[in-house]
Amino acid sequence: MAADHTGPLNGIRVLDLADPLAAYGARLLADLGAEVIRVEPVTGRSTVDRPPFWLAPDSPAVSPFERFVNAGKRSVTLDITAPEAEPVLADLLASADVVVESPARMLADSGWSDERVTAANPALIRVQVSPYGRDAVGDAPDDDLVLLGAGGLLHMGGYPDIGPVAVYGQQSTYMASIFAAVAAIVGLIGRQRTGAGMTADVSAQECIAQALEESVMRYALTGEVRAPQGDVAKEAGTGTYRCADGYVSMVAGRLGTAAAWTSLVKWITESDGTATELTDDGWSKFEFRQQPDAIETFRRIFERFAATRTRQELYRGAQERGIALSPVNDLAAVREDAQLNSREFFVGVEDPELGCTITYPGLPYRMSGTPLPGPRPAPRRGADNVSVYVDGLGLGVDELESLSARGVL
What we know:
Layout: E1 13-18, H1 23-31, E2 35-40, E3 54-55, E4 61-62, H2 64-69, E5 74-77, H3 86-95, E6 98-102, H4 106-109, H5 114-120, E7 125-130, H6 144-150, H7 153-156, H8 171-194, E8 198-203, H9 204-209, H10 215-222, E9 238-243, E10 246-251, H11 258-271, H12 286-289, H13 292-306, H14 311-321, E11 324-327, H15 331-335, H16 338-342, E12 346-351, E13 356-361, H17 385-392, H18 397-405
Parallel strand pairs: 1-2, 1-6, 2-5, 6-7, 7-8
Antiparallel strand pairs: 3-4, 9-10, 10-11, 12-13
Helix pairs in contact: 1-8
Keywords: Transferase
GO molecular function, one term: CoA-transferase activity
Pfam families: CoA_transf_3
């Protein structure tokens, strides 16, 4: 194990046999201090290479997604389908505490039955991640958009009159990976009590369906199928509004507080003498502010007020007045956000393979009693073959070279 490992999972070894659906889950365990060994194919591209690719100077095309999900890991190469790889894989399994597998049947399809894996390591925690569960019916596709649709979340996005709108990124990947990491930690806690290993079967579709919140219960109780809401305002003072340099999101009606609405009206009318209609008696009533005409009238008045103010000016003014308002930040604004930078959320990581420093999102938590590992770049494929196979598992140097020459390692 690398000597600089710290964190609550220090001393835990994880084998990462994951495709893009669960590779980030293994990375989350590395962030907590586990020694994560990424097992890559001997030839071809990494199993988690995903476009778009970046052409670095004097380097082959690089997948930023691969660098992100593999950050902090170690890397070995192994053709797990080769008969000569069987004793090496058996030793790797015996040395591990956790193995993250996706597709879920990767080991089984390579000749390693559940019984054989258990014989190699009875205390092993296996986390098997698949699109629809290990024993899913049929062979359905597992593209991110397909999984978001299958889990019901895609239907919730967008607007009622234009159809579903996908959220940014590979959200099914991250949702499945987060639950995979949770399952691994729960398995380790259970093993402390029983001494026995376990298998967790993680379905990406079910992870997505978890995000449907109260909609499932509402459907069970009333039969209502919740429609997409988009950013449609439910009342005057609550919604997304255009300003001088983009948009702000605000909750200042009944969903906020009565004091916030009063403060908002005072702020607008003091700045815009033509907005006095907001002070009429009807506007103080929630039922009135829910009416479509009131919603559109408020939007017209507020966006006229906001047209000469930036997101940050509106944010600071709202903070001073006790109004829940936030800028709708683009990536540049997120990178410069005072809150994130005050916590040093973004970290620069020197990547020797690329010959430059890459900025990563940091960890969204801090631990008072357990120092976490510092940021580490993704490894070069096979960079740890000698330290893992020779120094760790006792494979002879000559045997390592022989297996490498035959394409096994």
